[in-house]
Structures are given as C-alpha cells and as structure tokens.
Fold these 2 entries.
Entry 1:
Amino acid sequence: MNKPTLLKKSKNTTDYITDITKAFTILSNRKKLYHLTIDEVPTPHIQDFYFQLTNKLFNKINKDHRNPYEHVNYLFIMEYGGVISKREVYNSTIDNLGIHAHCLIDTSLTIPQIEFYLNTVFKTIPNYKLQDISKSDTKEGLLNYLLKQNHTGLMTADSYNYKILV
C-alpha cells in the first residue's frame, strides 16, 4: 500500500482559481464533508485570520488527532464582507471589514469534536455554522460561490489554504 501524500498549497502559485478548484474537487469527492462558515473573529487583518485558522485551528486539530484512524483534510477561503466585496459605497473608515471564512473539511471527527475546537482555540468564540454537505447535490454551486471574490480582485495568496492527504 502506498503511503498517502500531503497535498498543500504552493507558496509560488499565482493561479488561485486552479489551485482552489483542484483542492475543492478532491475534497468534494470524499465520503464525509462539512462546510464550516466562521465569522466575528476579532482580527486586525486577513493575514492574522489566516494564521488563526491555519495554526490555531487546523494544525491544533491535526496535532491532537495524529493517528492512522483519524484524519482532517481542509480547504479554507477567507473573504471580505459585502460592504467591501460588493463595492458598495462606504465611509473612509470601516469599523468591521466583515472578514469571514468558508472551510471545507473532510474528517473522521464528529461535529461535537469540531465544535470543541471552535469553542476553545480562538480568544473569543466565533459565530459559526457547521453543516454536513456529504450528500449535497449543490457542491458545484458552492465552488462558484467560494470563488466569487476573484471577480473583485480581492483574492490573494493570503485568502486561502489547504492540506489534504491523497
């Protein structure tokens, strides 16, 4: 049996759409898939939120569940709230950028286990919505929804990350 390979985001890619689509396609064909939306995480900028998601949430889960019987594969895409992404008229100062994240998670963990981490790794418990989309027939629409910020020019290398065992 071949040892699984860890597929990670390339640090040098500039083709975000292809990279995200590749990760999404792999995850969307897995048996168990969750869609997690996280918002209201106090953060001064998108890079800080990226760090919190990668290091505090997903690396912590992977560290705690590093054994052959459990797995956590993920893709997250962070986006700015509608006031910015829809290019609505706004003041020169914005109190809340509305940064939030959509995460696809292929895991052997249960919803209560995932919720435990959501409630303990952040300084303030974020608002979140966790859905089992394993049997959803709208995954193609979800991919288009997740890629929408590319049309506004707001998607950058700091907007997403993934780690998937293949």
Entry 2:
Amino acid sequence: MKKKVFVIAIIVLISLGMLASICLLKPTQAACPLGMETTCLGTIDKEPDEFFEIKITFRNNGERKGTWEIAVTFEGDDWTWKGEKKLLVLNPGKKKTLRWEGEVPEVAAADSIARLIVYYDNMFVAMNWWIHVTDEAELCIVDSEVS
C-alpha cells in the first residue's frame, strides 16, 4: 500500500514539474538570434467574422544588426488566416512590437480551433495562442413537460 502511494506521489510530482516547465518556457530558441515575447498565452473565443489583434514583441539577441521577414498565421484543420508579411530590422539587443489585425473567416466552423504560427528565416514557431470559434446561436432548454 505504501509503495502505491509513493509511486503515485512521484508520478504527480514529475507531472507537476513538467507542467511548470512548460508554462515557464517562452517561445524563444537559444540558437536563434531573434527572440519573441508575448504578454499572455491561451485560448480566446471568437465568432466567425469577429475581429482580433496580434501583438508580438521581438528582440535581436544577436551581436549584429538583423533583418527578418515576419509572417503570422492562424492554422487549424478547418480554417486558416494569414497576416500580411512585415519586414523587421533590429539592432543588437533592441526590441520592437509588431501588430497584425484580422478577422476569423466567415466560413470557420463553430467549435473549430486554430493555432498562431510565426514564420521567419525558413523557420516557424508554434505559439501558445489559439482561437476557438464559437457560434453566436446557443440553444437553451427553458421548460419541458411530459403528460
């Protein structure tokens, strides 16, 4: 009995440690000179045709001035949105925030989901931002009767 409790406790501690490390990691790669910062991560609910805004702060982690072409998309199984490509020029250690505006496609199915992906330098970073498409119509049973 004590062994089972001990094994379960170890599994729970390992799981919590892994979860904490995932939550604390930023979508930045150490080998890559361009770092990204976001203020929050998560899933937001939007309806088809509803407006959204993306803000990402980039930093040049390198030792030289750099130029990058940045593209963002929301990619899912049922729908995709592509933002306009932007040119980013940064001196070493400097930051700049880029913004994109968009709308969830009208054809996006209710209860579908898409993830924010950032593309640059023939690479991509899958961010921990998701849009969940909701339906503006919501059915609720108010009353019923059986005789």
